[in-house]
């Protein structure tokens, strides 16, 4: 049942469902859903990003990762750092450069408070 639901979810957003060995994740933060999959063997990344509006998950209104606010973007980068993904992969998922990911992680590490950074500028 769960396998069918997951396959239906991926198909509804135009991503081929995961196969054994693929790595996928669904991240929900601050009304933004990131759904991504990395294909085994090729390392190819497929992703979708949607905003939850009025408590509805609207597949018809995808947003580009680049349209996130810096605070949303940085929060998602910080959530993804605890995954098995490299900075390069996180950059691809979020739609920024690897240097931006590095800057966000360095800023958070050097911050004296444990808050989501709204900076650095990149």
Average pLDDT, rounded to a whole number, is 77
Which class do the helix and strand fractions yield?
A: alpha+beta
Number of helices: 4
Shape: globular
Distance between the termini: 44 Å
Rg (C-alpha, Å): 15 Å
Number of strands: 4
The low-pLDDT segments are none
Structure summary:
The chain is of the alpha+beta class and 122 residues long. The chain contains four helices and four strands, in the order αββββααα. It has a four-stranded antiparallel sheet with strand order 1-2-3-4, covered by helices on one side.
Describe this structure in words.
Strands 1-2-3-4 form a 4-stranded antiparallel beta sheet, with helices on one face. The chain starts with a helix and ends in a 12-residue tail after the last helix. The chain has about 120 residues and is α+β, with helices and mostly antiparallel strands. The protein is globular, with a radius of gyration of 15 Å. The model has no long low-confidence stretch (mean pLDDT about 75). A hairpin with a 6-residue loop joins strand 2 (about 30-40) and strand 3. The chain has one domain (about 1-110). Helix content is about 35%, strand content about 25%.
Task: Pick out its properties.
about 120 residues; 4 strands; about 35% helix; 4 helices; globular; alpha+beta; four-stranded antiparallel sheet
